[in-house]
Amino acid sequence: MKDVTVVGAGPIGLAIAWRCAARGMAVEVVDDGLPGAWHASAGMLGPVAEAYFGEAQLTALLVESAKRWPGFAAELGAEEIGYRAEGTLVVALTGDDLAEAERLRAYQAGLGLPITPLRPTELRDREQLLSPRVRGGAHAPDDHQVNPRRLVPALRKAATAAGVAIVRESGPAGVTVIAAGTGSAALTGLPVRPVKGQILRLRAPGHQPPGFSHVIRGYADGRHVYLVPRLDGEVVVGATVEERADAHVTAGGVVELLRAAADLVPEIYEYELAEAIAGHRPGTPDNAPLIGPHSDGVIVATGHYRHGIVLTPLTADLVADLVETGQLDPILGPFAPGRFA
Amino acid sequence: MKDVTVVGAGPIGLAIAWRCAARGMAVEVVDDGLPGAWHASAGMLGPVAEAYFGEAQLTALLVESAKRWPGFAAELGAEEIGYRAEGTLVVALTGDDLAEAERLRAYQAGLGLPITPLRPTELRDREQLLSPRVRGGAHAPDDHQVNPRRLVPALRKAATAAGVAIVRESGPAGVTVIAAGTGSAALTGLPVRPVKGQILRLRAPGHQPPGFSHVIRGYADGRHVYLVPRLDGEVVVGATVEERADAHVTAGGVVELLRAAADLVPEIYEYELAEAIAGHRPGTPDNAPLIGPHSDGVIVATGHYRHGIVLTPLTADLVADLVETGQLDPILGPFAPGRFA
């Protein structure tokens, strides 16, 4: 019998399994073979620029996990997983957009997070491709990125090397960890719902690196968009947020994303549209994760919503602690799976 | 030895082979296995709404071929090939768009072609989904449509049933017909160039028939777009016209097509974006086709540019006549392959 069965082979499940195996436990991961939310994720590691009004506890969790990312990336091979630390630029197109971005930036700065306002010329000093229409923004130097489609294979490799068995059907185990994203609802009865996101992959001409290197967190005429540039020429543009369970890419979703992105970085109009897909974030009633004991012998680690990638290292470490010691780190207190019961 | 080898297994080549075989000739078609321009074509049969200033001879050819389409479709099975005869609505968004559309309509009407102006309410009586912003348009009752991706398999079936051999490598033949689209340039030295077109396939929710049945030939803030509704729920939206040989779908191409289409038929924003591809029309210096004798034992039928589908029946009939009798129909006089030499 295994010590631990992890249900779910996304980044969260694989990282938990890897951490448990590294502590000497016998671990298996149940993989249904279907790509999860990570497959449609841009991989922004943005605890600062994503910090939102009224979510101070979640922000503390994001910040703590982001701190662990450099070491986590180094263990897996930073280059192999597309980890980039150029930072994030917040970019606002209109005066109204800038007012919205500034309200949020003041809140983030008030929490002591590293984010500094930038004037239009200062933005364009950092990224020449930004539209001359841009009215202002900010710099979040600690908000980085990783490529989830490289991260997951690297985690599989690391977990397997540590002795984890990746299987289709689970056997009996001492502890079961449910890390199945939107699939966790059916397994646990917990309130995890799919929140549809449409996301695009563009390619710079000739597969050259794109002409910008920061992650761009944009506000464009009231539309929110991000652009994540990869060294291989890919630019990920995302994402819609829709309370829908279908996986259709819609004409309207694509147009709104591309218009907003091109309003900020006009050059992307010339880029190839390489992929358009929809995924489903695991949302919860407060859109914060569910991490902790669920029932006898069952732990859950799900509901990471838009923050699964940034929260992967911390979730893995603390769930491994929980499995090993039975002790729950106090930072997880607000994220108890049973809080909506 | 075959009587006829046709190089090219698109609609033109297959239809020529079919017609020749039906007259008792031994025919083979050389198919390189690559989809041609037809694969990215919407299949508009629009001799009237596509009639353009200074192209009266080409328009006469289009009209003559369009007359043959009902019989041609009936031979292949009108339903099987997605032939629809609901007609075409010309739709103009702004006052400037209407002025442009009206100038062309007056020219078309002056040639005696069936096209009548419609006021906005008259347009919306025919298609309720049209945007309330639409300023006017016209009705071209004889401009129909077919589905090229159904047409080509039907032509292969008909040709094969008539005894045509479809092969990868050609053997010797009495007459060779070059109907290889953009590939004809390399085979003949004739001035045929690729003109890139990006085209989208949308799907109505639930794969229901779209909420409109006419082909829409649109003018939207100076952008030209068409929407072709199929009974299976597909709506084809096209097309860019670019003097480029690459086959990339670009962010800008997709945005411009979808914005223009949604400005006229807002509902399509909710449609699934099922496919975005680029194809290459075989263009010539005057963008009219090259049909007729090329050299000893070689006939060409290429350069159909944007009109390959509508010109298929006439091209097939007249090239079969030419092969059989050596006589060229006078309507083809202006389209001699050597006219640019």
Automatic annotation (TrEMBL), chains A, B:
Entry keyword annotation includes Oxidoreductase: yes
GO BP terms, alphabetized: thiamine biosynthetic process; thiamine diphosphate biosynthetic process
UniProt entry tagged with the keyword Oxidoreductase: yes
Pfam families (UniProt xref): DAO (PF01266)
Cellular compartments per GO CC: cytoplasm
UniProtKB keywords: Oxidoreductase, Thiamine biosynthesis
EC number: 1.4.3.19
Coiled-coil positions: none
Pathway: Cofactor biosynthesis; thiamine diphosphate biosynthesis
Domain of life: Bacteria
UniProt-recorded Gene Ontology molecular function terms: flavin adenine dinucleotide binding; glycine oxidase activity
Reaction catalyzed: glycine + O2 + H2O = glyoxylate + H2O2 + NH4(+)
Domain FAD dependent oxidoreductase: 3-322
Name recorded for this polypeptide: glycine oxidase
